[in-house]
Amino acid sequence: MKSFLRWFLDHPLSTLMLYLALILFGVVSFPRLKGEYLPTILFPEVRVVCEFENISAEEIERQVTVPLENVLSGVSGVKELESLSRQGISSILLRFSWGTDSYKAALEVREKIDSAYPYLPHGIEKPLVFTERGENEALFILVLRPKEGTSIQELDRTIRYDLKTRLMQVEGIGTVRLRGITSPEVKVLLDPDTCTAAGLALNEVPSLLASSVFELPIGKVNEGGKEHLIKASTDTVDLSALQRIAVPVESGSFLSLGEIAEVRLGHAERTSFFSYNGEPCVGAFLWPSPEEGTLNASRTLRRELTDIRRNYANDIEIIFLEDGAERIRSAFRELAISLILGSAAAFLVMVIFLRSLSSAVILLSSLPAAIIPIFFFQYLFGLSLNVMSLTGIAIGIGMIVDNSIVVLERIQGRRDHAAIAEGVLEMGSSTFGSTMTTLLVFLPIVFVPGIIGILFRELAITISLLLIFSFLVSMSLTPALYVLISPKTKESSSKKIFDRAESVYGKLLHALIARPFMIILLIIISFAALFGLAKVLPKETMPSVPEGRLQLSLSLPADTPFDGVEAAAERFLQAVGEAEGISGGYAYTGYEADNPLERAKKESSLNDIFFTFFYAPQTYQREAILKAHIEREAAILSVGKLSWPDSSDPISRLLSKGKEIRLRFSGRERENVLQEARAYRSQLLQEAPESDPRLEESGGYTELRLVPDQLACRNSGITPSAIAGTLKGLVEGSLVGTITLRDEEIDIRVQIAGYDRLSRRQVEAIPLQTQNGFVKLGNMVRFERLPKQRDLYRYNRVPSILLFVKDGNNTVQTGQSSTTGIKRERLDQSSFAESMRAIIGTFAIALVLMYLFLGAQFESFSAPLLLMIVLPLSACGSFLFLTVTGRSLNINSGIGILILFGTAINTTIILKASFLHSRNREELIRMAGGRLRPVFLTTATTVTALLPLMLNGSPEATLQAHTATSVIGGLLIGTVLSLLIFPALDYVTKHGNR
């Protein structure tokens, strides 16, 4: 090892060039890293979606969902099955254990589906299989607003085919979904009275029209030695030609289609809308491709939008409404500012106390030498540049220079290479020990399974790399630069201060050693403060971060027509948008008609409206007032049931820990499950009305069931199925062909006039042709009213329903009913408990590894226990600073405490290494006092480096401010208590108070 060190000392310029090369690799790698807010998360989940148009939710569940569940439950490794059945579609979500390759699981799922598909109902679409990713929210939202004088209907083809395709061609954009778009459709609206008067049966028109609108390849003919294709086609090139189609009537004559029906260009049934500031627009929701990352995709999209806007400037105004990369940029910017300010503050501290600019420069050089090469290794390991990894860098600034300070302090004044190497080796054991103990704290995180491991693995890897480079720099670059620069130290007032501090410190140690009960008293007080502060300290999953926007949803009754949903959204947007502080907002609902995956999600219901309102940063403190105003407006307008999202923080959502408690009721019989859930909801309302319990019921509605009169059908010579088919074709409509308009193939649909607002009485008046002439439908059938649910949920192959209760209610109970067998499970508690078990397990493993390493380093069973006394003392300081600054105990502050455990123990390691072979009290006190200067400098540089991060009041730095507060408080209090308690305790345990 000594010869290895001598090489760096004998070749200082080569050493410098080596680190400059590593820095260059890091600089080149930095722009190639993917920029994300959080590490990329691939959930071990597979979703199966199956469409069966126009089939009720009950039939979908019985004929599709249950058979598929029975087959898919046999997929290897599946832990949970969740299903949703709604009209026309079935969705089944399969969850696997963390670590499962979802793509391999999807292959097995497809094999199971292939074996089951032949046994599903005839005419059903083959089930589709999708792998699940992390966030469901689109990261980019564009508003496509028609220019004055044009409408969405006029621009639908331009948006659907041209603009959407252009957006998908942008490098880095993986998915584009449109909401608010309308697809054109030619409507042939039959007039029942006119048709009946002409003796024309309504159900005959679709087949007659289909035979008059077609384009059919016939074959080939040879003419003049050349081969020609023959195609038969009707001459329907526009709506007027369609209106002229002759329809035979009872008298033997013909009527034109335009005489018995209104023929016009309309739009297909709408499945979504989007409103911006109360104005109907089209919303383009974009997701970045996983390969490019959010930052690169945003950068490319903004650049390409310049050309896109220019190309569509005459028709469409394109507004970049939401940019998911902005949050990342803001977080990166705040972290970069804190990093620069922290580095400057640490440099200033070093200059003041070392009284040598060259020595401070040597120490400052360890920052770029340790930080910048990290980007190269992140690139090699396929890591992204995210808030977690940057937090590791920002928190690690103060720790990086610690090893170099200890080494430089030891070799000050030495000029001979052998003496310098000797000094470096003397401190190598302590710096290696402190580096390893910190590494051992983070090593277990790399192996933690589940969401916790994924979220914090990159943080652990980044800090671990920083610590390794910090140690290598202190052992190589720092002594090499010392040889190159040969700094000269000056006698200063700081030395006199340290001399006086050592004198006072020695007296305090002497008093503590002489009075062991004072040591015990200090420890008892520290532990009492630790438990007391832990009890009163606010606790939450993640700190609350104001984002400048409010998100909420409104659930309308299931029988609300689409026009009513849209009108309610526009009224609410207008009412809330007039509030002081609100700068705008948008609303949307529904899904893209040709996207079964979107349609299969719970949130795609056409009766659930999602709102986002923006407010200025200066009104952050008025967020609660704005929420109260929105709730009042919802109550006044009575537009629906208002609900706030479970959490605005993505980490809390990933951990299933939000502002509401979620209870799942499940059992064999759906009716019993519903009754149990409703009864428990009523009980909670009586016991704690403020808990505001609400069921996940999709909204009940009344289904009108048409039941043909068998006797009347037999007497009229018409079958019940013919009645149902006729009515279906007239109300829902029949597609009879296509027509080319505006260079686009557009469907032709035949329907009865007023199909979108038919009353029951009008349906009963629809004429049916029988062998006895025309008879009103009402004479052939009767109607029955049946209560129905829009969506049917199942969990692990049995019916289920969720109950949401406001958090803070401790009266909720879980378990299984002994009478009904209904199981009640608290989801947020189980998911978060699993995460907390992983965190606690990580702490426990880290402590065990730390004990084992320290025991090996000092060849002792008891020494590690004394060294680790600093851990609870430091935690006490963290809790105190969190309480004083009004911050909470959360995952981020917990990370700070974890970091603290790895750094605070460095003080006791340095002290132990210095008086390891002390023979008496005076020698121990003298040696401990000699370590006061490096301990102070390492603590001061770490604290000052983190201080800008702690004091940063911007919302973007809130998460990291909690981490910095934990570290600073723990270091300050823990270092002081360790300096006092550890040397005295170590001496008393060995020699008593002699």
From TrEMBL:
Residues 327-484 form the SSD domain. InterPro entries: AcrB_DN_DC_subdom, Acrflvin-R, SSD. It comes from the Bacteria. GO terms for cellular component: plasma membrane. The chain crosses the membrane at residues 335-354, 361-381, 387-408, 437-456, 462-485, 517-537, 836-854, 866-885, 891-911, 932-951, 963-985. Pfam families: ACR_tran (PF00873). GO terms for molecular function: xenobiotic transmembrane transporter activity. Keywords: Membrane, Transmembrane, Transmembrane helix. This is Acriflavin resistance protein. It comes from Sediminispirochaeta smaragdinae (strain DSM 11293 / JCM 15392 / SEBR 4228) (Spirochaeta smaragdinae). The lineage of its organism: Bacteria, Pseudomonadati, Spirochaetota, Spirochaetia, Spirochaetales.
